[in-house]
Amino acid sequence: MNPSTLDWRAVVRRPPAIQSRALAAAVVRRLIGFAIAGSGAAALIAQLARHFG
User: Fold this and answer.
1) pLDDT tens for each residue of 9-50
2) Residue 35 is assigned to a structural domain of this protein
3) What's the structural domain count of the chain?
4) What residue numbers bound the domain in which 42 lies?
5) pLDDT at position 49, please?
6) Largest CA distance in the chain
7) CA angle 29, 31, 34 (to 5 degrees)
8) Which of 32, 43, 44, 20 is nearest to 11 (CA)?
9) Residue 31: which of 19, 42, 20, 39 has the closest Cα?
10) Is residue 52 a part of any domain in this protein?
11) Residue 15, CB-side half-sphere exposure with 13 Å CA sphere
12) Residue 1 CA to its chain's centroid (Å)
């Protein structure tokens, strides 16, 4: 089973105020994760460009 589906079900069971807060926290965490992954990828590409350039 998909973990994201389980997370979604857990969020849905909660009261609306907590639900929106949990959802916002999940979105923020995901965005931070993407930002870290993006900067890591950019650094890696720059390193490779320097190495082969």
Assistant:
1) 666 666 677 778 888 899 999 988 888 888 888 888 899 899
2) yes
3) 1
4) 25-53
5) 92
6) 56
7) 110
8) 20
9) 39
10) yes
11) 2
12) 19
Distance CA 14, CA 20 (A): 9
Which pLDDT score, from 0 to 100, does residue 22 have?
A: 86
- Phi/psi of residue 2, each to 5°? -75, 125
Amino acid at 13: R
Please report the pLDDT score of residue 14 as a whole number.
Answer: 62
23 contacts 11 by C-beta, under 8 angstroms: yes
| Contact by Cβ (8 Å): 14, 22 | yes
Q: Looking at the domain assignment, is residue 7 inside a domain?
A: no
- Packing angle of the helix pair 16-52, 3-13 (nearest 10 deg): 150
